[in-house]
Structure to design on (260 residues):
């Protein structure tokens, strides 16, 4: 098996990853650097931004991380709380964070117990709508797609739930088979249909969603720091996340023009 001929399992993984990344899957270095991060959450809001952050200089990534943490704290009313204000200054000046950010449990305990922390709620942000994931055939070749509109009326629907989208029908035998396997001649594709009315807007505790942007911005890898800080800031800003990302994009565009 060569790199040009991935296994069916690897091919399906790449297919799904391409959808996750909105048509621009990551290279190995980007995938490695953002392992164990919240990058998949940020992709839902702005997949191109992740690539733009990756293309930026480390100093710009650090500046974005610091800015995102500050904007998250400002939105949540935390920027003037003394221990958080000190951390924001440390981020801006490139110093490591001190207590309580060196102990996650202590950080949350301090947030809960400090009377200076405001009780503030915001409507949870909702990412832009995007087409649902459309599963590929079981293998890269040897299948033909028959959409639902072209299926005959007597085509059995079975007892599965969800909207029938169509079927992948085998047109050639799988590798190593003399003829198509009867149990694998048809691959049904359905899309789940949510039941009930749309969910009501959800209110979240803004300080609790915003504060993780601060330790996120202190990650050792500047790219991961930028992604983590922006992701938590998006959460902390709630329904106002578009304004935050617009500012982040302006910073990246300005640094790109300065480097020309």
């Amino acid at each position: 098996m060569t790199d040009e001929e991935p296994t069916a399992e690897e091919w399906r993984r790449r297919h799904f990853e391409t959808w996750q990344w909105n048509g621009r899957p990551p290279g190995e270095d980007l995938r490695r650097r953002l392992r164990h991060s919240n990058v998949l959450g940020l992709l839902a809001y702005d997949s191109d931004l992740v690539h733009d952050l990756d293309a930026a200089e480390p100093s710009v990534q650090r500046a974005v991380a610091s800015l995102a943490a500050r904007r998250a704290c400002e939105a949540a009313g935390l920027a003037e709380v003394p221990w958080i204000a000190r951390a924001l200054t440390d981020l801006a000046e490139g110093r490591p964070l001190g207590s309580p950010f060196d102990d996650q449990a202590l950080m949350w305990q301090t947030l809960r117990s400090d009377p200076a922390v405001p009780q503030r709620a915001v409507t949870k942000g909702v990412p832009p709508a995007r087409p649902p994931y459309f599963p590929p055939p079981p293998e890269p070749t040897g299948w033909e797609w028959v959409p639902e509109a072209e299926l005959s009326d007597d085509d059995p629907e079975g007892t599965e739930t969800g909207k029938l989208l169509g079927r992948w029908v085998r047109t050639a035998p799988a590798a190593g088979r003399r003829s198509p396997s009867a149990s694998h001649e048809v691959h049904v594709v359905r899309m789940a249909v949510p039941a009930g009315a749309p969910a009501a807007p959800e209110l979240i505790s803004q300080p609790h969603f915003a504060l993780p942007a601060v330790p996120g911005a202190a990650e050792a890898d500047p790219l991961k720091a930028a992604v983590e800080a922006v992701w938590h800031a998006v959460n902390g800003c709630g329904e106002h996340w578009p304004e935050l990302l617009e500012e982040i994009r302006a910073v990246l565009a300005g640094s790109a023009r300065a480097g020309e």
